[in-house]
Amino acid sequence: MNKKPRLHFIDALRAFAILMMLQGHFVDTFLSFESRDTSSMVYNIWLYCRGFTAPVFFTVTGFVFTYLLLRHPIQGKKNPRLRKGFFRGLELLVWGYALRLNIWGLFLGQIYPNFYITDVLHIIGVSLIVLVSLYWLGAGIPKALLGAILVSLTFVIFLSEPFYRTIEFTSLPTMIGSYLTQVNGGVFYIFPWLGYVTIGSFLALLMNHSTKSSFPKWSFWLSFSGVALICLSSTFIDLFLSNFPDLVHPMILKNPYLFHRLGDTFLLFALFMLLENRFREGYFLEIGQRTLSVYIIHYILLYGGLLGYGLKRIIDPNGLSGWTSALGAISFMAIVVLLVLGYYHSDKIQQFQTNLKQGKIKKS
């Protein structure tokens, strides 16, 4: 195996993103309507920060897959990471549908409509399969051309967002159409989220031969690109629109939020990359390595995945106040993390209890 150091900043960024997701889902589920005050600075900051969680997750997914793919000494179509990535994508699809099932409904011979709605696991799974296909098909082409394809895909997906936003695909079966349209009530679809995965893959391709000593340089360029995307997206799109009026929908100028969120993601990448040497192996980084387990546990507890009965059906349907939601979110994060890490460290816990009973560890 090609010995490249583990990128701690990626594990830390994944941990940050999954914790943001936990609190975001809890607060959004239980915060009362009266507390969603857009004149409140605290609420607006929370709302803005919640918006970059998913883009970070999808971008990191593309980055990690490609980093590990390029890390393997066997390249080309025989790279075992391609097969592993394909089956990882299938695994995520299985988990996505499993969490949407209701076991009690199955006993009654029913599959509820919620089962057909795609979620983040479905789209990450499909995105991994798309990346595997791209790298398999592009195994013989120069890396520069492959990088250009990845960047082009991202910008085509982002710039064409007004075209596919309202398409309903009514002729397709619901299970397939849910991946392409918002009409079924989901939040995550192949487009535009695939665009973040492909740009993450491009970043890994670009940084493939970089060492940790070059991270400050990369951090600078990512910060520069992030600020440019946030502040100048409309200017760039307007310029593109003036030269290619038939290729870009004018509506994209009014709200180029996909580019803004990509800018946020670049800034977070830059920040965590600068802090690379500050991160050490520990429980925080392990959270970033257990994101699938964290997602599954949180979904079951919060939404009642599989069991059909979660916190969403227990807590006051009228919602919680702002501070109560915040305290609840902190408690929820702690419970989920303790459950996940406790499971993976159960052998250490048992050994500690054994040592305690045998008197090898003194009780305080």
Outline of this structure?
By secondary structure, this protein is mainly alpha-helical. 66% of the residues lie in helices and 0% in strands.
Question: What this model shows, in words?
Answer:
- The protein is mainly alpha-helical and 364 residues long.
- It has one domain.
- It contains 16 helices and no strands.
- It is globular and about 55 Å long.
- The N and C termini lie far apart (46 Å).
Uncertain residue segments: none
Tally of extended strands? 0
Number of helices: 16
Biggest sheet descriptor: none
Helix and strand succession? HHHHHHHHHHHHHHHH
Span from first to last CA? 46 Å
Class from secondary-structure proportions: mainly alpha
The 3D shape can be described as globular
Total domain modules: 1
Radius of gyration: 22 Å
| Helix proportion range | 55-70%
